# Entry
Amino acid sequence: MINSTLCYIETADSYLMLHRVKKENDMNKDKWIGIGGKFEDRESPEDCLLREAKEETGLTLTEFRYRGIVTFDNDLYETEFMHLFTCTGWEGEIGECNEGELVWIKKTDIDALNLWEGDRIFFRLLAEDTGFFSLKLTYHGDELQSYETRVY
# Structure
């Protein structure tokens, strides 16, 4: 079982997206995702978020919100619990990312990107500002088979 974070740094009309094009053997190859990564020993979700944001963008996050937990159930990969955040405040300048290209994407253009199908579901939940949610995504390979959502 894997614990990870994912964060979408946002302005009023855009998200900072990571186009995963640099890593070999990447399950996210050519996909557009947020920033984040796997927990290290003794890290909380917030610890992991702050470390990964600094490593991948060079930014220090100052205002962020814990939005939900996304469970990825996939027959090809280990089960993953992804702790989802959004961020509206940061310090510093965006640097180079060794995992892909960082690009500001208008929120209205997100749906046209090469995303995991389940990401479209949590983008909808983020846009609706539903409150804290739990989303279970069940995949067969790259194909989304089903999902379950609970809002708290």
